[in-house]
Amino acid sequence: MRSTMAVKSKLVSLLFLIATLSSAFAASFSDSDSDSDLVNELVSLRSATESGVIHLDDHGISKFLTSVSTPRPYSLLVFFDATQLHSKSELRLPELRREFGIVSASFLANNNGSDGTKLFFCEIEFSRSQSSFQLFGVNALPHIRLVSPSISNLRDESGQMDQSDYSRLAESMAEFVEQRTKLKVGPIQRPPLLSKSQIGFIVALIAIATPFVIKRILKGETLLHDRRLWLSGAIFIYFFSVAGTMHNIIRKMPMFLQDRNDPNKLVFFYQGSGMQLGAEGFAVGFLYTVVGLLLAFVTNVLVRVKNLNAQRLIMLLALFISFWAVKKVVYLDNWKTGYGIHPYWPSSWR
Amino acid sequence: MAALESPQPATATAMRHAFGNVLSVLILVLIGVLAFSIRLFSVIKYESVIHEFDPYFNYRVTQFLSKNGIYEFWNWFDDRTWYPLGRVIGGTVYPGLTLTAGTIWWVLNSLNIPLSVETVCVFTAPVFSAFASWATYLLTKEVKGSGAGLAAAALLAMVPSYISRSVAGSYDNEAVAIFALIFTFYLYIKTLNTGSLFYATLNALAYFYMVCSWGGYTFIINLIPMHVLLCIVTGRYSPRLYIAYAPLVVLGTLLAALVPVVGFNAVLTSEHFASFLVFIIIHVVALVYYIKGILTPKMFKVAVTLVVSIGMVVCLIVVAILVALVASSPTGGWSGRSLSLLDPTYASKYIPIIASVSEHQPPTWPSYFMDINVLAFLVPAGIIACFSPLSDSSSFVVLYIVMSVYFSGVMVRLMLVLAPAACIMSGIALSQAFDVFTGSIKYQLGGSSNSADDAEDTNNAPKDDAAAGKTDKGEETVKERSSKKGKKKEREPVEKPSIKSKIKKKALVLPLEASIVALLLLIMLGAFYVIHCVWAAAEAYSAPSIVLTSQSRDGLHVFDDFRESYAWLSHNTDVDDKVASWWDYGYQTTAMANRTVIVDNNTWNNTHIATVGTAMSSPEKAAWEIFNSLDVKYVLVVFGGLIGYPSDDINKFLWMVRIGGGVFPHIKEADYLRDGQYRIDSEATPTMLNCLMYKLSYYRFVETDGKGYDRVRRTEIGKKNFKLTHFEEVFTSHHWMVRIYKLKPARNRIRGKAKKLKSKTSSGWSSKSAKKNPWI
């Protein structure tokens, strides 16, 4: 990850240095008028975008950050993006960028007054603004940086957003912003899943479809009348629940872990009853379900088979599998929870 | 009954039936004894004492009821809790449990059996577990016959999930509510099978009892409409369905509104809307069927378009009203707990106080094994048995298990609702399996072919007995009345032609030796279940958590610190003193120490709890200000570091921070974590080391072993020697589990500060400090 950000153009950075120096020189004479000009320009740039995230390039950085004397009248929250890394799923760049846009839009929507001009959301794209990346000393993504009004050295990493600050996406980003800038972001406003016209379309579709559905229900020939569908649905929900899938969804558990000591080995079973891994849950859920299914198979289907030997063979197989499944679950449970389940015999039997 | 069967061996069958009935009653009595006695481990191993937290509140309310009578209880305003707000107990409590135990106590006393209120409270739960297993028998018998009923009742009598909530001393709502739940379902099924208004009325009354007892009644009022809808959609509508449902909604809702804690919620909250919607639908459907009955098919086709369109308009209007109502309230009219069932990630995101409770966590697979044990294996077989053939009643239990198993996957406490369903299903599965296996053995050992023939005949004989023309019902009556032996064959559809049945009968057997092995394995499975249940009852679920024990090499250690400190409070503090602690200990403090608390386990006011959480997470001075503003005299903390008691306040502390931070944003969880890790050793953050909870827990702790080694966190504490400025230690229990601090009066603190000032600046301190000090 870090190696991808190699130093590329020394020339640009030299030019940039000159530009920075000259602009810094100019900025030292700046007054409040030019400050408000800058703010106005930022506001107009912001209004041109959809979510309020200003796209900055090297020129923009020099104009709004390096050439303005501290304290600047605004903070910038900069998202460092790289289109070429969007394909790397573990970096989650597109997702974070989307969430960043949501925070920005929420901030805009909740702050119409003076506070709205104190913080601007910006993004810098790597391929177009490599020197800015260098200027900020950014060599690893994802990287989100808050440039407070007083920061003059852009390499100062105090404004960097930690991993924990965007772990919960927009909500935690907003918390970070509120914590650092003392500005109120307000409630996060996510775009609804369906737009209004889509909802209207769906409602219309349902309204049109209902008479036909009711007609078929009255006739009794829908899928709903198929018992096998209900049966498999019920069994599936049972399997789904006893496998603890809900736990995996709520806790966002992975299917398996990598062994810490040996990275090539995968850990499928987690010891300790408070937690489970995805594959583990499905495996045990399958064991839970298969015994009942075999029992039902024997008592409902196998009894009608006429061949006695076939019956015998299948039944013994089913019994063996069931026995093995129960034994396995008991073993796994004892291993996982550490409980020592034991009977209570009368003391005279010992 | 016997007359219905072939006349020849009439007396023999009658005898067998009579014998079977007597045996059933005997077995049921034994099941009742089993259910009661398996729950007595807590009394035998510990003592006859009320358990945990909530039961103490219920006990206190029952005491009040038995002392002051029902009207006083109904209007009781409790000023001992939620200081300074107080709580209207009569209007905010589910009165079912209290009234039940109060009635039992009153009846016993009028019979001159002088039991104390506490004894009655301790044993209410085991008694009601016996009732619950009998109700399970009735319910399962309605669905699949008495064999399955007995099996299900026996399983329910010792299912660990239910034991966990109903051991002797666990005097909580669930103890009676599970009985009410099963009994309501039984009466619903009974009404559905008989179509009798008498049972429908009883059903509404049972539902009323359930509403009185437990907030879980919403499960009933959503499950039954769902079943009705399911029946309608799959074309199983019948007048019996209407009788089973319509009176329940009308009477049930009216009765539910009588319970103060529910009141108008019974018509206003979204949890109940499903029942009203289905109520309208069933009327539309009933109208359609009625018109279908009086019109010719051709006319009906014309009419159906008319009715359907009118019905749809009505439905649309109602839906629109409901949507408007739902949209007008912020949470959509759903309570937080219900919402987190629909959207499982809801609570963890938005309501830390719900997410903080351990029983609201989603369970992992070992929880199922622990709580329903081998039933988890048998349930799928039960589901399949319910589908062959599918009747109104069996579709209901299928729906019940599906809904409850899904909800239990979201919240571990709803495992309790799953347990009866799992028992019913497993009972059905076990009964069916035993029928098939023993039938095969019996058939192949010979000599019983005659009786097999008889049993076969009964299938077709009483078909016209059923009053309603529906075949489902015919099957049901057959099932109830025929002997256990014939049941195997009844699993096949009744409509089978009799010629075919001769051939089928021969085929319907399994190999002898395989059947014997299968039977043995099933018995082993059952034995394992019994062993597990007894173990769970004895070891896992019997601890009262008010008295702790630990077994070590040098014998049994008893930690009775809680009662020691509550007794200290009641003997050494003024009656009107206010005691602050985390909400877990609120009920116990009011019940055992009889002192006023700030927050308790009835977590109705999030802000108030957040205030206490904030105080605990603040530095000493800020905490002193908060507590002082609440008139608090004493602060109680629970500390397990010395003996290794893991559920102490330090382990709960992050929740205090979260809940406090939810209302008072200056408390931030990140300030208490070092790199995302919660720690109290030398690496801990300064905010953590200076917060009140840390200081009160670890004050003088280093004096115990010289190092300050915390046995729960398994580390040495970060800050060892410090003094308290605003609090003084007044009591620490024998094993340091409970520590009580007194807020220093403002004047004392000035003197302390003044001394410092005096030593620094030699002149004129009094006027200066008096000006600066905000406490005067």
TrEMBL record, chain A:
A single GO BP: protein N-linked glycosylation via asparagine
Domain of life the protein comes from: Eukaryota
Ranges that cross the membrane: 199-218, 230-250, 282-303, 310-326
Source organism (scientific name): Capsella rubella
UniProt keyword annotations, A-Z: Endoplasmic reticulum, Membrane, Signal, Transmembrane, Transmembrane helix
Subunit organization: Component of the oligosaccharyltransferase (OST) complex.
Official protein name in the record: Dolichyl-diphosphooligosaccharide--protein glycosyltransferase subunit 3B
GO CC annotation: oligosaccharyltransferase complex
UniProtKB/TrEMBL annotation, chain B:
Localization (cell): Endoplasmic reticulum membrane
STT3/PglB/AglB core domain segment(s): 576-635
Gene3D superfamilies named among the record's database cross-references: 3.40.50.12610
Disordered: annotated span: 450-497, 751-776
Pathway given in the UniProt record: Protein modification; protein glycosylation
Keywords carried by this UniProt record: Endoplasmic reticulum, Glycoprotein, Glycosyltransferase, Magnesium, Manganese, Membrane, Metal-binding, Transferase, Transmembrane, Transmembrane helix
TM helices/strands, residue ranges: 21-44, 88-108, 120-139, 145-163, 175-200, 206-230, 242-267, 273-291, 303-327, 368-387, 394-412, 508-531
Documented EC number(s): 2.4.99.18
Main location class: endoplasmic reticulum
Source species, domain of life: Eukaryota
GO cellular component terms attached to this protein's record: endoplasmic reticulum membrane
Catalytic activity: a di-trans,poly-cis-dolichyl diphosphooligosaccharide + L-asparaginyl-[protein] = N(4)-(oligosaccharide-(1->4)-N-acetyl-beta-D-glucosaminyl-(1->4)-N-acetyl-beta-D-glucosaminyl)-L-asparaginyl-[protein] + a di-trans,poly-cis-dolichyl diphosphate + H(+)
PANTHER family membership: DOLICHYL-DIPHOSPHOOLIGOSACCHARIDE--PROTEIN GLYCOSYLTRANSFERASE SUBUNIT, DOLICHYL-DIPHOSPHOOLIGOSACCHARIDE--PROTEIN GLYCOSYLTRANSFERASE SUBUNIT STT3A
Complex formation: Component of the oligosaccharyltransferase (OST) complex.
Name recorded for this polypeptide: dolichyl-diphosphooligosaccharide--protein glycotransferase
